[in-house]
Amino acid sequence: xxxxxxxxxxxxxxxxxxxxxxxxxxxxxxxxxxxxxxxxxxxxxxxxxxxxxxxxxxxxxxxxxxxxxxxxxxxxxxxxxxxxxxxxxxxxxxxxxxxxxxxxxxxxxxxxxxxxxxxxxxxxxxxxxxxxxxxxxxxxxxxxxxxxx
Length: 149
Fold this sequence. Notes:
Layout: H1 7-23, H2 29-47, H3 53-74, H4 80-87, E1 88-91, E2 94-98, H5 129-136
Antiparallel strand pairs: 1-2
C-alpha cells in the first residue's frame, strides 16, 4: 500500500502559493521568499513520510511557474533574459535558483523522505526495555534512570 499526498492537499498548497504570489506583486523578491519558505517547508515536512517524491517534483515545477509569472507581472516591459538575470542565479549544478544574496527559495524536493522503520512485533516492553527506550529516543548511557537493567 502506497500512501501519497491527497489531491485535495495538493490543490490547497498550490492555491495558497498562487494566492500568496499574486498578492505579492509589489513585494521584493526577498519578502516573497521569506513568505513562501515556511509554507513550502511546513507542507513538505508534513508529507515527507509519504510516497511524495513525484509530488514534490511536480510542486517544484509549479513553484517555478508561479515565480516566473511573478517576475513577468512585476516587469511587463522587460525581456526574458533581463528577468532571468535579475531573479535567478546559478548555484552548484543548478542553473535556475530563485534567490537573493540573503535568501534562497526552498524546493520541495530538497526535503528528505523519511520512512518509519517497522517495529519489532515480538518485543515485550517489560523484557526489552532498551529497545523501547531507543525507539523513543530516551536511551542515554550516562543517565542512570534510562539505563536498562
